[in-house]
Design goal:
With 149 residues, the protein is an alpha+beta fold. It has a domain at 23-110 and 122-134. The protein contains five helices and six strands. Strands 2-3-5-4 form a four-stranded antiparallel beta sheet, covered by helices on one side. Helix 2 packs parallel to helix 5.
Length: 149
């Protein structure tokens, strides 16, 4: 697995990497590095169903461009746009300055290695490696983490 250690915090101080599933760190770093700002992510309860929600400012064109780079190299999973109406009271708590109560975010459910549709750490690493190669980014230091299980 790739680890960027303190570089994560230095480059993206507003991302709470200490609260993000460790297996997702590299992917979240890479996505933000290429301009796809993330808002939430999860590895899944069994750490087999990773997903990412992008910030509202990520455009349809950015997602389309990103998707076009990946399909022939790695399985990309599914992208969809999640639209919801928070209502005035909830939006007041979420963002008091905002008048519109509709939120729209692109979401990405990462691919699974088989028909079970469960992604693995290896799938995430392959996607991270592909992103770093396509966009010409530094990948950090590679090392094997000892299993604690």
């Amino acid at each position: 697995m790739l680890y960027f250690k303190d570089e994560f915090k230095k480059e993206f101080p507003n991302i709470p990497f200490n609260l993000i599933d460790e297996e997702m760190h590299d992917l979240i770093y890479m996505l933000n590095k290429i301009g796809l700002k993330t808002q939430f992510c999860c590895q899944g309860h069994q750490k087999t169903e990773p997903s990412v929600m992008f910030a509202e400012e990520v455009t349809d064109a950015q997602i389309k461009e990103f998707m076009c780079h990946l399909p022939n190299i790695v399985k990309i999973g599914s992208f969809y746009k999640w639209t919801r109406d928070l209502g005035a009271e909830m939006m007041e708590l979420f963002d008091p300055k905002r008048k519109d109560t509709i939120l729209k975010n692109w979401c990405w459910h990462l691919p699974g290695p088989s028909l079970t549709n469960k992604a693995t750490i290896m799938d995430i690493q392959k996607i991270v490696k592909t992103i770093s190669e396509i966009y010409g980014l530094e990948r950090g230091v590679e090392y094997e983490k000892e299993s604690t299980r």
